[in-house]
Amino acid sequence: MRLPCPLCGDRDIREFTYKGGAEYLDRPAPEADDAAWDAYLHLRENPAGATRDLWYHGGGCGAWLVVERDTVTHAVTGARLAADMAEGGA
Amino acid sequence: MRYSAWEILKQGLTGNAGWKPVWRDPAPKAEYDIVIIGGGGHGLSTAYYLAREHGLTNVAVLEKGYIGGGNVGRNTTIVRANYFLPGNSEFYSHSLKLWEGLEEELNYNVMHSQRGLINLFHSDGQRDAFARRGNAMINQGDDAILLDREGVRRHLPYLDFDNVRFPVYGGLLHPRGGTARHDAVAWGYARGADSRGVDLIQNCEVTGIDIEGGKVKGVRTTRGEIRAKKVGIVVAGRSGQVAAMAGMRLPIESHILQAFVTEGLKPVIDHVVSFGMGHFYISQSDKGGLVFGGDLDFYASYAQRGNLPMKEHVMEAAMTLMPVIGKAKVLRSWGGIMDMTPDGSPIIDKTPVEGLYIDCGWCYGGFKAVPGSGFSFAHLMATDRHHAPAARYRLDRFRTGHGLMDEEGTGSQHNLH
Predict the structure, then answer these.
(1) ipTM of predicted complex
(2) At B417, is the pLDDT very low, low, confident or very high (cuts 50, 70, 90)?
(3) Which member of A34, A35, B47, B400 has the greatest number of CB atoms within 10 A?
(4) How do residues B52-103 score in pLDDT, each as one tens digit?
(5) Are B139 and B235 in the same domain?
(6) Domain around A60
(7) Which domain holds residue B389?
(8) Model pLDDT, residue A89
(9) Which of A37, A44, A46, A72 should one mutate to test binding to chain B, selecting the residue with the greatest count of B CBs within 10 A?
(10) What does pTM read for this prediction?
(11) How near does any CA of chain B get to the CA of A87, in Å?
(12) pLDDT at A87 (0 to 100)
């Protein structure tokens, strides 16, 4: 599996660290209740099929990426810089 | 038919014409008292214990594929009770005791082999941690022996003891740990449940869960609607999809875990050996194949196959620890879908929907839990009370933060287990 880093091009998966679903970008307000934080930290859509998730390019440019891929086929269809996504997940 | 040496002799002398299928292939009835979604190890043992412990036989197990075709047929067959934390400790201790009586109880040879499991350590700090774990195991009533370097050498003379990066300091021996024949466990429980009247319904995929007024009414399947007073979800890596049918999101992320088996060799590895520093563990099957694996690939996946970097890592760890197996040819590798929780421990609990129960989150350790999980889940579904050894496996522990069981001590987060 290779990930298409927008800054570095197609790179081996070994260069990346997986974080989890892109919903990690939808951080609740600090005063949100425990249900909101539980949903953010623990509960998952866990999709079988198309997904968007966060990867850190630690072995390359150091950027956080939002990768579009398929959890059933391992096909990777795109990646964008997380920094370019609007606050709130885009 | 009761299996015995006499029966084998009799059948052998009469052309083996008398063997019969050991479970029926019934069509689903319109209604059951209890429907179990998932005909894997945990679902089958749940059905078995519902019938045997609680006398509940108006029960159906719905399996989308065939019995034993999921993770129970795709694991590395290790059976152990070497957990450290309260909650896990008593649960796996109970499960191991069930294993020890399983063959006689089921009248089925599950090839349970208590050949001993050794966790190696490679530093003074690791020795202290394993000494503490061993004490916790002994306090639980199980067995643990702390071996020094020479003690390990007597058991495992083939290790590279003087590896520059990971010299062997010793190991924690769990003599009652070992392996079992994974398929036979599924078949034995299936036969036991079927013979008590449970309907095992294969090729029957659940497509919806009917809920009215917060109460479960039944399920929709590819073989029609089935009404049920109680429904149990026991679907391992597919927990997220099935729970979504009930409008729930779970603290579960499904990951890929790879395993490997070599060509058959003469006996060389007599134990289960675990090399935590390199994420590698190994045993030898009765057919002679070396069965081994490592850590997760560490990304969400339902592909049932992994990628090359983890394969390379596992092979490197094997060669670091035991170069003796370097010439063995790998026959095949595969991947299983692991239902990972944030703290790495499972869930056996009620859900917010009345009559709907869930047993999931077995991460990469579900096989050894098959008897205990079924026993405890059956207890919960039959009595609406948690079974004592599994009482801490609560669905809401991540929200409350109370009773987290993070055996690895890495933190209760999805990407850390």
Answers:
(1) 0.94
(2) confident
(3) B47
(4) 999 999 999 999 999 999 999 999 999 999 999 999 999 999 999 999 999 9
(5) no
(6) 2-32+46-84
(7) 27-78+182-251+343-416
(8) 45
(9) A46
(10) 0.96
(11) 22
(12) 54
Name the token pair of A85. 């996504």
Say if strands B224-233 and B356-360 run parallel, antiparallel, or are unpaired. parallel
Same domain, B224 and B325: no
Total count of residues recorded for chain A: 90
Reading the block at residue B53, the tokens are 């412990």
Last residue of a domain, one of B290, B313, B340: B340
φ and ψ of B385, to 5 deg: -120, 145
Are residues B170 and B203 located together in one domain of the fold? Answer: no
Strands B59-62 and B199-201: what pairing? Answer: parallel
Chain B, window 299-358: residues with a beta carbon less than 8 angstroms from a chain A beta carbon: 299-303, 307, 309, 342
Question: Is residue A90 scored above 60 in pLDDT?
Answer: no
Nearest Cα neighbor of B209 from B237, B236, B239 is B239
Interface residue B247 vs chain A (CB under 8 A): no
B256 burial type by CB count under 10 A (0-12 exposed, 13-18 middle, 19+ buried): buried
- B71 is written with which tokens? 């993770």
- Mean pLDDT within B221-241: 98
Q: Which of B315, B304, B312, B308 is nearest to B255 (CA)?
A: B304
Tally of domains in chain B: 2
The model's pLDDT over B110-138, given as tens digits with 9 standing for 90+, comes to 999 999 999 999 999 999 999 999 999 99
Res. B286 pLDDT band, cuts 50 70 90: very high
Q: Which residues of chain B lie closer than 8 angstroms to A32, CB-CB? A: none
Q: Indicate which CATH number applies to the domain containing B159.
A: 3.30.9.10
Chain A contact for B252 (CB, 8 A cutoff): yes
Calculate the average pLDDT of chain B: 97
Whether B172 and B277 share a structural domain = yes
Residue type, B174: H
